[in-house]
Each structure stands twice: as structure tokens, then as C-alpha cells.
Write a structure and sequence with these properties.
The chain has helices at residues 2-10, 12-24, 29-35, 37-46, 51-57. The protein has one domain (2-64): Protein LEAFY (Orthogonal Bundle), CATH 1.10.4180.10. It is built from five helices and no strands. By secondary structure, it is mainly alpha-helical.
């Protein structure tokens, strides 16, 4: 669920709206978890696809980044 946490850190409003919509529709956690990817992909696209930079620049996300 790190990507859901990442979305919440990077765009709290979008994260809350997504979570609320899935809860209201009675969707399961797995569906919500999958839905968190699309907004993160959009954020990454706006940042030149540099996921490393996105994670390392954010204080709450930098602890999750492990170089490969």
C-alpha cells in the first residue's frame, strides 16, 4: 500500500476523494488499492517520469525509497 500512502502525501485531496468514492460504492480494498496507481502515474508524467526524484523530494516519502 506504499503507493496509496504516496498518493495521500502528494495529493491529499485526490486521495481522500478516491477513498471516499470507493467506500460509498462498497468496493473492496483491492480495487481501491489498484485505483491509486493512475493518479500516481499522472504525477510521474508531469515530473518527467522521475519517480526517484518524487520520492526523495518529499519528507514523508523519502524513507520509502530504496535504490535498485
Amino acid at each position: 500500500y506504499v503507493h496509496c500512502y504516496a498518493l495521500h502525501c502528494l495529493d491529499e485531496d485526490a486521495s481522500n476523494a478516491l477513498r471516499r468514492a470507493f467506500k460509498e460504492r462498497g468496493e473492496n480494498v483491492g480495487a481501491w488499492r489498484q485505483a491509486c496507481y493512475k493518479p500516481l502515474v499522472a504525477i510521474a508524467a508531469r515530473q518527467g517520469w522521475d519517480i526517484d526524484a518524487i520520492f526523495t523530494a518529499h519528507p514523508r516519502l523519502s524513507i520509502w525509497y530504496v535504490p535498485t
